């Protein structure tokens, strides 16, 4: 799949903030419980964005781990490095592209993660093989991503607002099928875990903000919906009206995130 996508710092941090404020559960706690990191581990986070997972591991292990984060976006790496200064640059951030051989030797990490990112790789089996290569024998990879039933309300509102069919998303259309199959082909064992997190909105505004930050995240994937900023704003107005109407009818909007956590062993 050809992926034409670029995350921006504002949109990513906005969505993280809305999850924190309106979500019923905390995904970082769920993940840390599942992965059981140990002090002294060498850790790589692939598609690290602004460093969310790297900083969570650092805090959880009281700084006693060698943590590296890699991402293709210079903008997000700059944001991660800014935050890293607060902990004396304890995490190493590097440029890493899913679609190229990682600039890392083989067999060096105890643990690796890739959160909400693997589906932006152009050749999934290639990227999964790279992730496998850099892990030590017996090392583990944790990946998270959207399952097909993820954010049903979000897509329902967009469908109602536009009257159009939703294009296949690179994440939810492939994560629990093609991407899971590719992990199973490469790793000796893969365990599947599911995390459900209802986000409850009593006013339309934060839902509309979330939608704006999600649609702009994947803006190039929604080409049949809008070609330019004017059309984008028109659609956002319609989305706002549908969200307000539903809140009047139902009292609130509940958008449930359904996330697959795949824990693979080399
Ligand atoms: C939704 S964000 C998730 C970031 C972070 N893991 C988090 O949970 O906050 C997806 C990330 O994948 C990164 N990404 C997209 N394409 C990539 C590529 N070809 N190589 C490496 N990273 C990529 C983006 O720059 C972005 O940081």
Largest β-sheet summary: 7 strands, mixed
Helix/strand structural class? alpha/beta
What small molecules are bound in this structure? Answer: S-adenosylmethionine
Structurally, the number of domains stands at 1
CATH topology: Rossmann fold
Average pLDDT figure: 93
Q: Tell me, what is the CATH class?
A: Alpha Beta
Radius of gyration: 19 Å
User: Order of strands side by side in the largest beta sheet?
Assistant: 3-2-1-4-5-7-6
Helix coverage percent of residues? 40-55%
SSE order, as H and E? HHEHEHEEHEHHEHHE
CATH architectural designation: 3-Layer(aba) Sandwich
Contiguous runs where pLDDT drops below 50 for at least 5 residues: none
Tell me the CATH superfamily: Vaccinia Virus protein VP39
Strand content: 15-25%
Straight-line N-to-C gap: 26 Å
Give the overall silhouette: globular
**In total, how many beta strands?**
7
Structure annotation, total helices: 9
Structure description:
It is a single chain. The chain is an alpha/beta fold. It has one domain: Vaccinia Virus protein VP39 (Rossmann fold), CATH 3.40.50.150. The protein contains nine helices and seven strands. It has a seven-stranded mixed beta sheet, sandwiched between helices. Strand 4 (109-115), helix 5 and strand 5 form a beta-alpha-beta unit. Helix 1 (9-22) runs antiparallel to helix 8, helix 5 crosses helix 7 and helix 8 (204-217) runs antiparallel to helix 9 (229-250). It is globular and about 55 Å long. The mean pLDDT is 93. Bound molecules: S-adenosylmethionine (SAM). The site of S-adenosylmethionine (SAM) has 19 residues, from helix 3.
């Amino acid at each position: 799949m050809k992926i034409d996508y670029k995350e921006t710092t504002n949109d990513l941090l906005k969505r993280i903030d809305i999850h924190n404020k309106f979500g019923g559960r905390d995904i970082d706690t769920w993940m840390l419980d599942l992965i059981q990191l140990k002090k002294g581990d060498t850790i790589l986070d692939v598609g690290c964005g602004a460093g969310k997972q790297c900083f969570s591991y650092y805090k959880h292990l009281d700084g006693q781990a060698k943590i590296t984060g890699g991402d293709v976006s210079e903008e997000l790496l700059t944001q991660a490095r800014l935050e890293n200064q607060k902990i004396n640059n304890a995490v190493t951030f590097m440029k890493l592209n899913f679609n190229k051989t990682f600039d890392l030797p083989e067999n060096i990490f105890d643990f690796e993660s890739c959160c909400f990112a693997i589906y932006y790789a152009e050749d999934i089996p290639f990227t999964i093989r790279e992730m496998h290569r850099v892990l030590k024998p017996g090392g583990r990879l944790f990946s998270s991503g959207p399952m097909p039933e993820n954010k049903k309300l979000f897509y329902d509102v967009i469908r109602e607002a536009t009257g159009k069919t939703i294009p296949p998303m690179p994440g939810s259309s492939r994560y629990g099928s093609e991407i899971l199959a590719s992990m199973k082909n490469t790793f000796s064992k893969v365990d599947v875990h599911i995390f459900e997190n209802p986000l409850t909105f009593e006013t339309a505004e934060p839902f509309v903000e979330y939608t704006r930050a999600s649609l702009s995240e994947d803006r190039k994937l929604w080409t049949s919906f809008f070609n330019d900023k004017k059309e984008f704003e028109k659609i956002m107005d319609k989305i706002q009206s549908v969200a307000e109407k539903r809140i009047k009818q139902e009292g609130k909007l509940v958008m449930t995130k359904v996330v697959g956590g795949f824990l693979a062993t080399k």
